[in-house]
User: Fold this.
Amino acid sequence: MLKRRSLLAILGLSSLGSAMAALLSRAAAADAASPAADPAWQLSDSQWQERLSPESYAVLRREATERPFSSALNAEKRPGTYRCAGCDLPLFRSEAKYDSGTGWPSFFAALPEAIGSKRDFKLIVPRTEYHCSRCGGHQGHLFNDGPRPTGRRYCNNGVALSFEPD
Ligand SMILES: [Zn+2]
Assistant:
C-alpha cells in the first residue's frame, strides 16, 4: 500500500495521473481471489487459511506469485494429473506440460471447463489471470507465446497444484 501511495503521489504531478490512478485502483480491487463458482466452495477467508499451507494460501487466495524454480513440480515429468491445491479439481494433464524455461510449471492447454480467467492490471500492462473454475483459487497467468498446437502458455504456480501420478 505504501508503494502504491507513493507512486500515486508521483503520478499526481503528471497529466497521466488520473488515468494511472484508475488503473491502479483496478489493480487493488483484483487483490483477492475470484469468487468460487460452486457454492460449496464459497469458504470464508479464515476457512481457507485453515485448509491451506501459508504458501498455497498466498497464491490461491491472495494472488501471490511463488519464486521461480522453487516448485518441485517444475521438473515433474511423470504421466499424471495436476489438480487444484484448493479444491482438488483436475486442471491439467501431463501431456500438455512442457519446459518453458521460466521456472514455473507450464502447460499449453488446460482440461475442458477447468479454469476461468480475468484481466488484471497488477503490472499496469493488462495480463490474463486464470483460476480454478470451481473454487476460484488463483493459479497463474496465461500468455500467447506457448508451443504448438495451441500457442498458449499457462504459467502456473506449483504451490497452487497437487500432482497425482497415473
Ligand atoms: Zn479449486
